[in-house]
Amino acid sequence: MSQKISDSTIRRLSVYLRLLEDLEKAGTPTVSSEELARRGGTTAAQIRKDLSLFGSFGKRGLGYTVAELASRVRRILGLSGAWRVALVGAGRIGSALFAYPNLASRGFHIVVVVDNDPEKVGTQWGEVRIRPQEELEDAIRSEKVDMAIVAVPVEAGQSVVDRVVSAGVRGILNFAPTPLQVPRDVWIKDVNLVIEMEALSYALSQGGED
Amino acid sequence: MSQKISDSTIRRLSVYLRLLEDLEKAGTPTVSSEELARRGGTTAAQIRKDLSLFGSFGKRGLGYTVAELASRVRRILGLSGAWRVALVGAGRIGSALFAYPNLASRGFHIVVVVDNDPEKVGTQWGEVRIRPQEELEDAIRSEKVDMAIVAVPVEAGQSVVDRVVSAGVRGILNFAPTPLQVPRDVWIKDVNLVIEMEALSYALSQGGED
DNA sequence: TCCTGTGAAACGGTTCACAGCC
DNA sequence: GGCTGTGAACCGTTTCACAGGA
To answer: Which of A76, A124, A193, B32 has its CA 20 to 30 A from that of A50?
Structure first.
């Protein structure tokens, strides 16, 4: 079952799932790879290839059953249950993420918030109380946290990552704009807005020859 | 000069630039591809290949002059001047971005902020007054905006993108978690936190076989 | 007939290895 | 001798095209 699956395949599955859920809501019973490709801005062959890496979910001549495929993709992505997430850094980005509805609705529940600003510590955010940074490891363990979102200034990034890893977290979403070191069995995804903007800068300064 | 340059090359250049600026600050006069690779978590061959797509910036036997290479890369990425940016959506994510120091320090200046919440319209953010959504196109034109950051709810994403494009913007950073349509001469970069989290979900639910 | 599932071909990006210049 | 610049080999991903089942 687990051969070599590329990151881009996984990201596309995530997009397919969203499209499938839209179709589900709309009550569409079945969908072809062609139709899904049209909606997702990709190709039918790509979709069939992606899915074929995990099994045969369709029916020749008919397409895919929307509800069934959605459920299969959800299972592939590990989204059947809920994930428990720690947020490190309750600054502007952290608080925006905490309130971001799409995370919770997709099963990512922020159950721990940590910050090092004494003004913020003790504050209640919904059901979560902001804890001081010293409690990071304990909170991760007692709240059975699976993933961490790191939204701290660049200079604190590495030490925060080291600490969440030492407490047993194996998946990290990182907003600190610097390459961070993690052990090979820990997964880290970087969100770097400056890199995205600079890629735009490059594209625009090319003067527009497509 | 402009052959086919991949997006990944551009993103790596952005990383190299940051490393070079660190070296510049530290007063290091020259650097080899080997050394740069070590710091950036990549390979020396990769760096030489990336740079060779744009010219020959080093000296054989010596390496690269830090200040010169930084300046070259800055020019390649179109970062010599300043970019004027419109922020559409002054909600939590929008306000976090507005205050994000790394954007301004890299030459991305938010000169227009638009929101559709009457409570927010008229509020002053630093030097920028939040404008009503009707003024979007006018503001983009009068403020000579080059790029837009779209941080609005998913259902408003497409119409906002259509409007900024019609006003002449050709580079968009999009936070709306849905695939958006733009003309072929417009560049859009999506930041989709849910996809990142779902990629982590997949990795973790694989049970840890590397 | 229609549409999936999948080997095979094509493509593009990364790594290798070395010629060439300091 | 040291390190860059680059063609060639390699490798992973995408696209093609079609066999095969509904």
So the answer is: A193
